[in-house]
Amino acid sequence: MPPTNDSHPARAPAGEACLVRTRLAVLNVLVGVGLTIALGGWLLRGRAEGHRPAPPGGVSDLLLPALLALIVASCILRSVLARRAPDGPPARRASAFYWAHVLPAAVIALAAPLGIAYGWWVNPRVNQGVLMFWIIPLALGFLFLPRSYELDAFHDPAQDPSRTPSP
User: Fold this and answer.
1) How far apart, in whole angstroms, are the C-alpha atoms of residue 93 and residue 46?
2) Most CB contacts within 10 A, which of 39, 44, 79, 111?
3) Averaged confidence pLDDT in the chain
């Protein structure tokens, strides 16, 4: 089980700075998601009571698969970037660590505006569809926050993929 505290005695100050910078960037993405949700709530507040015209053809058939595509894309992006980041040159590891967390969070953040579109054209009731467009980016965004133990792999020398360890 990985350690739970965020201070690692052997970690260099540059590693701590990278961790703080990355956490701050992911949290900024989450704040953007929160502001988008607030804007969506404000825009959709009166649409549930009034008579709405029928949604444009195919919109409801596109928005749910788009949400699924964003989920899959952000998870794959996180997996691939996090796996490749420690193997890069030492000068680029901090940047790779940063983008391995921020880019997937930014991709899934696009689900929040999709929720506004879903509420505007399909069903403005929060509990009948819009909520999943807003909860998923928040939940995955928190999962994409970097943990201190993830940075430990960046202090080890880069592994040469052509060499295999001898038994």
Assistant:
1) 48
2) 111
3) 81
